[in-house]
Amino acid sequence: MSTCPVPSTAVSGLLEHYVKKILAAPVYDLAVRTPLQVAPALSLLLDNQVLLKREDLQPTFSFKIRGAYNKLMQLSAEQKACGVITASAGNHAQGVALAARELGIKATIVMPCSTPELKVLGVRSRGAQAVLHGESFPFALAHALQLAEACGCTFVSPFDDPDVIAGQGTVGMEILRQQQGALDAIFVPVGGGGLIGGIAAYVKYLRPEVRIVGVEAEGSSCLLAALRAGERVVLPSVDGFADGTAVAQIGAYGFEICRDWVDDVITVSNDELCSAIKLIYDDTRSIVEPSGALAVAGIRRYVGQHRVRGQTLVAVNSGANINFDSLRHVAERAAAHSAS
Ligand SMILES: Cc1ncc(COP(=O)(O)O)c(C=O)c1O
C-alpha cells in the first residue's frame, strides 16, 4: 500500500492514461454531478468535517451508471447492433439497462438469485432482459461469460474494464473540483475495485497527498486479501449482506491501480454498516443500501483507530438500492450496535 510515493514513470503513466480517459468520459449524458455535502451530525460526532458524495442521488440510485454508460459509448456500431451481456450484483445491472435503453442496445443481464427484488425490477423496468442465475455473483458471472461466448455479444464487466473504471473515476474528478481546499482522505466502498481504481487514479495524479482508503465488508474483503497476498486471490466464500459489493476476487485492472495507489483498506462488520445507514439517515433523511454505507462506517472505524481530529474526510455514499422489507433488520442491528 502506498505512503504517498514518488511516482515512477511507468506507474504515473498508468495514472495519466486513466486521467485522460476520465476527462473524456461522456457520462453526463445520463449521470448527474452529485452534491458533496457536509454531514453536520456525523461531523460533530466524529470531531472531523465529514462530507458525503451523494451518489445515491444518481438516476439509478448508484454511481454505476457512470461506468456503464461510458463503456457502452465506446462500443463500435457492430458491437452495439449485436447487444451486450453483463453480470451484476444489481447496481451495474440497472446502469447497463438504462444506458442500453438510451443507446438503443439490447441488454441481457445475469444476476444472482439472491439479488434484492427492487434491483431486478429496476432492470426489467428499463427494458433489459434479467436472468437470475447462481447463489452469488461468481456463479452469475460464469454464466454471463458463457452466454456472451455462445452468442458473440460483448460482455460488459461491472468493474474489470478500463472504460468502466474511467466512468467511475469521474466521481473522483468531481470531488476534487467540489473540494478545492482542505481534503485529507477519501473513503471508497470496494466490491470489484472499479470505483476505487478510477477515483485513486484521478486523485493520486492531481493531489497525491490525499489519502485513498478502501472500505470492504468483513465478509467480502477481496482487496485486502489481494494486497496481503501480493496478488489477486479468490475468497473461498462471500457474505451477501452488503450485496452490491459481495465479490470474491478484485478485478485485475482495479488491482493494478490499487496495489500502488490505495493508502489503506478497512473492513467493517454488518452491524457497523447498519449503524452507518442510520447515521447517514440522521444527516440526510435518505436511506442507503449496506454497500452504500461502507464509506461512512469506514470513516468511523478510521477516526477511532487513528484518533484523527479536525480533518476533512469524504465518504462516497455509493448507492441506495435497498429493499424496503429489510429496513426492520437494519434498524434492529443499528440499535443493537449502538447499545453494545
Ligand atoms: C452501492 C455500491 N457501492 C460500491 C460498489 C463497489 O464498486 P466496485 O465493484 O467498482 O468496487 C458497488 C458495486 O456494485 C455498489 O453497488
TrEMBL record:
Pfam families: PALP. The lineage of its organism: Bacteria, Pseudomonadati, Pseudomonadota, Gammaproteobacteria, Pseudomonadales. Keywords: Amino-acid biosynthesis, Branched-chain amino acid biosynthesis, Isoleucine biosynthesis, Lyase, Pyridoxal phosphate. Catalyzes the anaerobic formation of alpha-ketobutyrate and ammonia from threonine in a two-step reaction. The first step involved a dehydration of threonine and a production of enamine intermediates (aminocrotonate), which tautomerizes to its imine form (iminobutyrate). Both intermediates are unstable and short-lived. The second step is the nonenzymatic hydrolysis of the enamine/imine intermediates to form 2-ketobutyrate and free ammonia. In the low water environment of the cell, the second step is accelerated by RidA. The keyword Lyase applies. Its EC number is 4.3.1.19. NCBIfam families: ilvA_2Cterm (TIGR01124). It catalyses: L-threonine = 2-oxobutanoate + NH4(+). This is L-threonine dehydratase. It is an enzyme of class 4 (lyase). Belongs to the serine/threonine dehydratase family. The keyword Lipid biosynthesis does not apply. Homotetramer. Residues 32-319 form the Tryptophan synthase beta chain-like PALP domain.
